[in-house]
Design brief:
Elements: H1 2-20, H2 38-43, H3 56-59, H4 68-103, H5 110-141, H6 144-184
Helix pairs in contact: 1-4, 4-5
Length: 188
């Protein structure tokens, strides 16, 4: 009985490590580490990522000189993609649950796990494809000048966002250091 509990504990720990071992974003570099293909990062469009980042407030800035028709097309593209990506993310989450369930079985089947992992990778690739397609569809609505201006704006936005992230991270580390220092310094 103890061996079975030990084996089950090891399997649960291993499965959690396997499932939670997702690549973490690399905020020090732009490009593939952030989940965006290099080509899209160079074009500036990949900054929208896979999620629900709403670019419409940025695009409504008069400096871009978008027509209402352009804004309407871009908004429609973005909304459709968000819905499609949400559906794929639900599928991806379900596949993760299926993998966990298989791992928790008394004797998980490796061939079944391989099939599930392949399906999970395929769904993730579909999400990436939907993001790239969205970016290219939006780019096609813009003029070259609008795209260049948008690209520059998004680069600046992402650099500011990254700086805020690093500033918050440094503040947290600084606060921890200050707390440690105040505990170790003798009172005068």
């Amino acid at each position: 009985m103890k061996q079975k509990i030990l084996l089950l504990s090891i399997l649960m720990f291993a499965s959690l490590k396997l499932i939670s071992a997702q690549p973490q974003p690399n905020y020090d570099k732009m490009g593939p580490g952030m989940g965006n293909p290099p080509m899209m990062m160079e074009s500036g469009m990949g900054y929208m990522g896979h999620g629900k980042f709403d670019i419409m407030p940025i695009l409504r800035d008069p400096k871009f000189k978008f027509s209402e028709e352009q804004l309407s097309k871009i908004d429609a593209i973005q909304k459709k993609t968000i819905i499609d990506i949400d559906k794929k993310q639900i599928e991806l989450q379900q596949e993760r649950v299926n993998i966990k369930e298989e791992l928790f079985k008394d004797s998980p089947e490796l061939s079944k796990l391989k099939t599930m992992l392949d399906k999970k990778a395929s769904i993730a690739a579909e999400i990436e494809y939907l993001s790239i397609k969205r970016d290219l569809d939006i780019k096609a609505v813009m003029t070259k000048e609008q795209f260049t201006m948008f690209q520059d704006t998004m680069k600046k936005f992402m650099m500011e966002k990254r700086e805020r992230f690093h500033d918050n991270d440094r503040m947290k580390k600084g606060d921890n250091k200050m707390n440690k220092d105040s505990k170790t310094k003798p009172k005068k």
